[in-house]
Design brief:
The chain is of the alpha+beta class and about 375 residues long. The chain folds into three domains: about 110 residues, Acyl-CoA dehydrogenase/oxidase, N-terminal domain (Butyryl-Coa Dehydrogenase, subunit A, domain 1, Orthogonal Bundle), CATH 1.10.540.10; about 110 residues, Butyryl-CoA Dehydrogenase, subunit A, domain 2, CATH 2.40.110.10; about 140 residues, Butyryl-CoA Dehydrogenase, subunit A, domain 3 (Up-down Bundle), CATH 1.20.140. The chain contains 13 helices and ten strands. Strand 9 and strand 10 form a beta hairpin. The radius of gyration is 21 Å and the shape is globular. The chain starts with a helix and ends in a 7-residue tail after the last helix. The structure holds flavin-adenine dinucleotide. The site of flavin-adenine dinucleotide has 23 residues, from strand 1 and helix 13.
Length: about 375
């Protein structure tokens, strides 16, 4: 992508973010409220439709630009978690939906008329072992009937549509455990109150995450995306983009922490001199800078491979792991540099500190990435 275009988009994102200062996020965080105004501003600017092809009303931009958008949001002290899924969840429809589904949904997702930002995969008992999910969708004439439960379905209360992964054949009846899983596009406006119940989960961060219960929810049979039983593969193909974009948010967080810490330690005087003059204060910030610059190179490698249509599984995983560790190192250095003020809400450090911790757990935890690298890159025995 033309560097100039990316630079211009970065500048317009930074400009948009300047309308949403720390006080805005502090208030939302205190009330665990959804940042509606911020999400609306991004939608109106067309930024959430950047990955949707032009023929469906989007900007048709590559992942490298989406990465720049999310990095910039986080580097400017804002949080893309309220809406990042609107950017990439549609990829399941784009890549695996039929013509009708693409034409019906993508243009409305592009304008923001329809919000598709609920992605329901994780279940309480299965955890990371996705093939052990038990939510079942049973075909009944022109419908599927769904029963089961999801957990950590983020933004479900702020979405019109949901991508759901459910079993259509029980695990005990399939040869390969990843077979028999199917993907559905659910119209939540019709489902809530008619077999779908959403319960918010209060967490250490303001993330609008929920539990979702399915009790004989009936959906039209044409809600199925792609072929029945092939859903696991469809979900996996979307995960690389998700990991690269989350890694970009981590790089943005690291930039915010490093800049905030550096500004503070330059100004704060203790024992008659800036605390930033002490190597004990400088070094953790400098180390996290080196870590984040290295992680950024891996993010770039990953999105370049993705944009060239090449396999980027290892790079997507590695960049998510490295970037989430770099942002955490920067968060730790920033909090420590601020001393007691790091704990004060008005400095934003404690909030960003809490928020940045998530990415070593979600969307995939560090251990599972290490297991992937060991198995697929180093040819070591599968450990689970
Ligand atoms: C705020 C938030 C938002 C989320 N949003 C969504 C969402 O929108 N949609 C969605 O589907 N999910 C979402 N998730 C779920 C998230 O993807 C999972 O929490 C994550 O993948 C980890 O799964 P788990 O919580 O079941 O942990 P578990 O699988 O129970 O794992 C717990 C710990 O054990 C370790 N572990 C497990 N198995 C192994 C092994 N074989 N080897 C070594 N270590 C292992 C893990 O690394 C982890 O540290 C969200 C989670 C959170 C907290």
């Amino acid at each position: 992508m033309d560097m100039e275009v990316t630079t211009q988009i970065r500048q317009s994102v930074a400009q948009l973010c300047s309308d949403f200062p720390g006080t805005y996020w502090q208030e939302k965080d205190r009330e665990r409220a959804y940042p509606v105004e911020f999400v609306n501003a991004l939608t109106e600017a067309g930024l959430l439709a950047s990955l949707i092809p032009e023929e469906y009303g989007g900007a048709g931009l590559p992942l490298s630009v989406a990465s720049a958008i999310l990095e910039e949001i986080h580097a400017n002290g804002c949080n893309g978690a309220a809406c990042h899924a609107q950017m990439y969840t549609m990829g399941t429809i784009l890549r695996h939906g039929n013509d009708e589904q693409r034409k019906e949904y993508l243009p409305k997702i592009a304008t923001g008329e329809l919000r598709l930002q609920a992605f329901a995969v994780t279940e309480p008992t299965a955890g990371t072992d996705t093939s052990s999910i038990t939510t079942m969708a049973v075909r009944d004439g022109d419908e599927y009937v769904i029963n089961g439960q999801k957990v950590w379905t983020s933004r479900a209360e702020h979405s019109d549509l949901m991508i759901l992964l459910a079993r259509t054949t029980a695990k005990s009846e399939v040869k390969k455990k990843s077979d028999g899983l199917s993907v559905f596009l659910i119209d939540m406006r019709k489902a809530v109150g008619n077999g779908m119940t959403i319960r918010p989960i209060r967490t250490m961060i303001n993330h609008a995450t929920t539990e979702v219960f399915f009790d004989n929810l009936r959906i039209p049979a044409d809600s199925l995306i792609g072929e029945e039983g092939k859903g696991f593969k469809y979900i996996l193909t979307g995960m690389n983009a998700e990991r690269i974009l989350i890694a970009s948010e981590c790089i943005g967080d690291a930039r915010w922490f490093i800049e905030t810490a550096s500004n503070y330690v330059r100004d704060r005087k203790v024992f008659g001199r800036p605390i930033g003059q002490n190597q004990g204060v400088q070094f953790p910030i400098a180390r996290s800078y080196a870590q984040s610059e290295a992680a950024k190179l891996m993010v770039e490698k990953a999105y370049n491979l993705y944009d060239e249509g090449k396999n980027c599984g290892a790079e997507a995983n590695m960049c998510k792991m490295l970037a989430s560790e770099a942002s955490w190192a920067a968060a730790e250095a920033c909090l420590q540099s601020h001393g007691g003020f790091g704990f004060a809400e008005e400095y934003d450090v404690e909030r960003k500190f809490r928020e940045s911790r998530l990415y070593q757990i979600a969307p995939i935890s560090t251990n599972l990435i290490l297991s992937y690298i060991a198995e697929h890159e180093l040819d070591l025995p599968r450990s689970y």
